[in-house]
Each structure stands twice: as structure tokens, then as C-alpha cells.
Write a structure and sequence with these properties.
Layout: H1 3-14, H2 20-31, H3 36-43, H4 47-68, H5 70-80, H6 86-95
Helix pairs in contact: 1-4, 2-4, 3-4
């Protein structure tokens, strides 16, 4: 899985475990494709501060996934339900 898609998927599971600022920096960088400099200008902080926080977020996302396996288990469940009835499959998808 491409790194950007991987971290976006992890973020969907673990974003509530991050601070508000970490969420803003991550979303600016990964969702809106802002440069670190653009985020720094918008937030009135240094580019290095944004870089450090984005790096910390990635480390936290990796740590949470290593301990909780939410993304990994979700992918396994999706592979298991491929052959199920569409209605049942949809209900399971809503849960994961």
C-alpha cells in the first residue's frame, strides 16, 4: 500500500488519539497537499515545528497500529466477507 494511503487509513482509525494541532498538521499535509512551509505560514510556526509534529504523528500512527492492529484486522475482515451476500456484506462494512 502506498505510504500516503497507508497513513490516511491509519489516521481514520486513530485520529481521536492525536492532539487537535497534530490533526490539523496531518490533514493539511496529507489531505490538502499543503507544503510544510504553507502549513507553517498558516499556523504562524516554523517549518521545522510542522515537520516535527507530522513526523511524531506518523510514529504514533505506526505505534497504535502495531499495538491494536485495527487496520490489519479490518483488511482481513474485508477479505473474509468477499463471498457473502451483498446485504450482509454491506452491514459488516458499515461496522468496520
Amino acid at each position: 500500500m502506498e505510504k500516503k494511503f497507508y497513513y490516511n487509513a491509519l489516521y481514520d482509525y486513530y485520529k481521536e488519539l492525536l492532539t487537535e494541532k497534530q490533526q490539523e498538521y496531518f490533514e493539511g499535509y496529507y489531505f490538502h497537499d499543503f507544503s510544510l512551509g504553507e502549513i507553517a505560514d498558516n499556523e504562524s510556526v516554523s517549518r521545522n515545528a510542522v515537520f516535527t509534529q507530522v513526523k511524531i504523528v506518523l510514529e504514533k500512527l505506526d505505534f497504535y497500529e502495531e499495538k491494536l492492529h485495527l487496520l490489519e484486522n479490518s483488511q482481513k475482515i474485508r477479505s473474509y466477507i468477499q463471498d457473502l451476500d451483498d446485504e450482509v456484506k454491506q452491514k459488516i462494512e458499515e461496522l468496520i
